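Re: export button greyed out
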Amino acid sequence: MEKTIANTVLKVNEEGYLTDFSQWTKEVGSTLAQEANISMTPRHWEVITYLQREFKNEVPLSIRRIGKSGVVDIKEFYQLFPMAPLKTASKIAGIPKPVSCI
Amino acid sequence: MKRILILGAGTAGTMMANHLRRSLPAETWEIDIVEERTEHHYQPGYLFLPFDLYTPEDITKPVRDFIPEGVRLINDHIERIDPDEQFAAMRNGDRLHYDLLIIATGTKIAPEETPGMLGSEWQKSVFDFYTFEGSLALRNKLREWEGGRLVVHVTEMPIKCPVAPLEFSFLADSYFKNKKIRDKVEITYVTPLSGAFTKPKATTALQHLLDEKNIHIESDFAIERIDCENKTIVDYGDRTIPFDLLVTVPTNKGDELLARSGMGDDLNFVPTHKATLQAKNWPNVFVLGDASDIPTSKAGSVAHFEAEILTENILSFIAGEPLKQEFDGHANCFVETGGGKALLIDFNYTHEPVEGTFPLPGIGPLRLLKENRMNHMGKLAFRWIYWNLLLKGNHIPFVSAKMQEAGKSFD
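Workaround output, generated via the alternate export path:
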């Protein structure tokens, strides 16, 4: 599937997650945040940058690991990205939806 | 004489002891297995015990009965493993040196991870069914419970047998119907996932069953604490769900032994190559069953399929050859849906559960992802298969270690 944000045609999956991280820009992230009704602050971007770094290092993400990361605690993570923070933040960060292994 | 040391005589370790004793000459290879407990539990029975469908006797047998001749069973507590010096230290001070180690210490519940879980309501209105004691205490509670809000809850993934809490909800629906108090019970299923299950097609089928049985689902719920005073569970976003009876699956962790030995990840699971089952950090250490971090279900069926593959790989390793047998993540689970019916799911790392026939493509007799009585008979028959075939490391007819694609309806 494709989606146009900021005059760029982006490859996304059926749930709206970017499928090619190299297409991500801060502008794309801002637009995706708006779609999720989140107004981004510097603190939001810190968390997004952290998630992207973990993604590049191929570290699987979970709420538990984020809580122990020292970057953000779980309570604040929920305040920044309410309801389903890991999914919302991953979408804004342009990284795949986290897989909870089964 | 060389020595293989197996840690844990649960489903995985017991199967491995049987496979290896048959495959390796007793003159050159000693096989030892260490287990702290003396009783072997048929763990799928923990699901049936609360509903008086099985008795404690149905699901308990001595560990020793399943350890083959020629394997030494050591009944002791393991203090730590030293993977560099290649020994395991026992509580009594003995050091068991090994040439090859198999870790099969499983996963355990860690209710202490959630504030309030072990508080004043533990085993009064807050129960687990992942231990024998918890399951039995819950049976006694259910026998006298007159109704109210039942909340079935999953703390965080991964958990052993990820379908078990759903099955618990379905069986609870049947149980209260039979007791003629279903109208007095409100059942809510609370999960940290976005839906009933982790895989899309199975989620659709299972969601349909939840609706049919009038079980309400609350998804994306990451629990922060249990409020014992108000009898609610509270998530990090301050969502609260009230309960009169909470049946929770606490955080699952690998054995503390792995933390003490510096061999586990943040949940004490051992980082393991998902295709070969070799530990990532130590070539002569292999990890079988729930103790590893591989991305498949933590379940007896998985351990059974792994054991067939791992036996081949260990023989290759001993011969100094490359590990060529590759595990595909194969899992096969009966899902009890209540009312004497069940459905069956069969999947691996890359293929999600879909509809089809099993184990014979096009014939069955079991049907995948469809609820019926035959599947339920399959689940009941499985207890016999477990005690008589599976633990002894026998091949189950027609069921291969690698998942078959034939007989399944992929898109």
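Residues 300-318 of chain B form the longest helix (19 residues). The button fix ships in the next patch.
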